[in-house]
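4.2 Preliminary Data

To establish feasibility before requesting continued support, the project team ran the inverse folding procedure on a target of 555 residues. The structure was first converted into the token representation described in Section 3, and no sequence information of any kind was made available to the design step. The complete token record follows.
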């Protein structure tokens, strides 16, 4: 595909990057700690870690993994916790020990956790005590030999640690009892002297992270992300946002969970490489508390998904936040709806920069240019050193303006799925492109637009209907908070559109009124035939509405 998008690049953004194949994430980490030792790296609940402190703590944890735990280079170590200060300590400690991170959602059920630990072959796990009871149910079925348990306040000073842990344990009642024979406390692990650390000589080819992704069908698969994959995406994003990031002077709001590849890359790794300060938000669903935290800091960047931004703009206190320092507002994970972008701009006077990516691509493939004047509704342009091709079912490229499956090739694309060559073969083309499963179009300028997941497409009387379009219209209605659409079989056996709708508080609108509104904004065949009202939509850990769950319940 002709790279027409290169003409739209911001001045100074290179078309191709000169990447060092020997560079690892540990190199990026060490460089940041050396240059920004006294500056704050991470904050949470009023407590902070400087880069110098992070360097020391991660060295201690890496030493424990190599010596006391007796683990070896390449062994998998799982992390199962929300956005605590302990997360980056575990993350960079594992990497410095030459081992592989397995990110685990702390909200997983025992069944989901058991599968991921068995599939990855993890020999150790670091987890928040609130998840320990889940692990206790399945640990004897796994290869886990060592369990490191931590409480929310473990890295805090003693008086504050006792206060925070008391609050979490007894007031919010989040921490169940656990009984795991092999468990040790993180606080005791960090008493190990860092002098015994054996530095590992890592390169870009070494595996860094197993990022599990459910995809659209089947069981979760571990995307193998090498140090080279992740370093490449750091360099790509740093080049893309070069005019919006200044070394040692950035503070990014990190509300999305770090175990998700989006926040791991865009917040944890990219801003660390610039000596940035990550403000960790443990529970962004508590919007009032979230906004109170935002008001304490002159933040310069924030990342989120549409539902996160929507929850913020729906809260009256957002208008009391000072946005004068905000330069980068990033969104991904799901389509940003026009109404959400409009409301955000009205309150903050900033424009959401939408991008696109997947776990398999480290994750970012495309992004809109920095400092947009208005929201485009596009996922933007491919990053430097990234090839994108839109293809039909016969693997032939489609023309400009025609829809096709978005396929990508670049240094950020995974090497494959862990121990699953068949699944890898299914998503890779003979010429080395990864098939994303998303349907997109590209315009004459080279801007890409996602029309939907390939399997989410609804066929009504021979016409292709894309749920995103209907959802966008529905959520522009002043009485509708959230919406999701799927295809279901009618009594006549034909596929029709079903809409799930969550109304704003106090609304009395009914299904007939919603259908009439849709008829005013959509072709007749796109209007939902069935409307079901719901208080809330099923969502992933990062707030993405799960159409799959809605579809599965329809049978």
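Position-by-position output of the design step:
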């Amino acid at each position: 595909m002709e790279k027409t998008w290169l003409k739209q690049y911001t001045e100074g953004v290179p078309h191709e990057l000169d990447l060092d194949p020997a560079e690892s994430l540990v190199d990026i980490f060490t460089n940041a700690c050396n240059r920004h030792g006294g500056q704050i790296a991470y904050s949470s609940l009023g407590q902070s870690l400087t880069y110098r402190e992070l360097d020391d703590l991660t060295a201690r944890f890496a030493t424990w993994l190599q010596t006391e735990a007796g683990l070896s280079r390449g062994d998998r170590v799982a992390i199962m916790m929300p956005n605590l200060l302990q997360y980056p300590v575990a993350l960079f400690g594992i990497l410095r020990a030459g081992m592989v991170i397995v990110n685990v959602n702390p909200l997983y059920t025992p069944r989901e956790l058991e599968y991921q630990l068995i599939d990855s072959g993890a020999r150790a796990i670091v987890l928040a005590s609130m998840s320990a009871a889940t692990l206790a149910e399945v640990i004897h079925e796994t290869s886990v030999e060592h369990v490191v348990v931590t409480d929310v306040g473990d890295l805090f000073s003693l008086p504050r640690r006792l206060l925070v842990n008391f609050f979490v344990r007894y007031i919010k009642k989040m921490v169940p009892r656990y009984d795991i024979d092999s468990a040790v406390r993180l606080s005791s692990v960090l008493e190990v002297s860092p002098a015994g650390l054996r530095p590992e000589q890592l390169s870009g080819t070494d595996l860094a992270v197993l990022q599990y992704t459910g995809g659209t069908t089947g069981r979760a698969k571990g995307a193998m992300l090498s140090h080279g994959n992740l370093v490449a995406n750091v360099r790509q994003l740093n080049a893309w946002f070069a005019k919006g990031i200044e070394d040692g002077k950035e503070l990014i709001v990190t509300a999305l969970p770090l175990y998700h590849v989006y926040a791991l890359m865009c917040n944890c790794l990219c801003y660390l490489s610039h000596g940035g300060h990550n403000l960790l938000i443990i529970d962004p669903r508590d919007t009032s508390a979230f906004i109170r935290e935002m008001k304490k800091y002159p933040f310069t960047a924030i990342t989120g998904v549409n539902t996160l931004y929507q929850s913020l703009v729906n809260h009256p206190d957002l208008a009391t936040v000072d946005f004068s320092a905000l330069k980068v507002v990033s969104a991904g994970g799901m389509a940003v709806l026009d109404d959400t972008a409009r409301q955000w701009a009205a309150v903050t006077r900033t424009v959401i920069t939408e991008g696109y990516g997947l776990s398999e691509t480290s994750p970012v493939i495309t992004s809109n240019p920095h400092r947009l004047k208005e929201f485009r509704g596009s996922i933007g342009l491919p990053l430097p050193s990234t090839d994108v091709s839109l293809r039909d079912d016969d693997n032939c490229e489609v023309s400009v303006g025609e829809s096709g499956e978005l396929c990508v090739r670049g240094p950020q694309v995974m090497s494959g799925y862990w121990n699953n060559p068949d699944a890898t073969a299914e998503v890779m083309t003979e010429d080395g492109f990864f098939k994303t499963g998303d349907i997109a179009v590209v315009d004459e300028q080279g801007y890409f637009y996602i029309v939907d997941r390939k399997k989410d497409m609804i066929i009504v009387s021979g016409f292709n209907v894309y749920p995103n379009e209907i959802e966008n219209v529905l959520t522009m209605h002043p009485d509708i908070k959230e919406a999701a659409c799927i295809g279901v079989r009618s009594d006549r056996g034909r596929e029709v559109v079903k809409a799930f709708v969550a109304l704003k508080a106090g609304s009395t609108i009914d299904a007939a009124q919603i259908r009439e509104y849709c008829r005013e904004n959509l072709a007749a065949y796109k209007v939902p035939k069935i409307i079901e009202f719901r208080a809330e939509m099923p969502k992933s850990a990062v707030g993405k509405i799960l159409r799959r769950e809605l579809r599965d319940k329809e049978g």
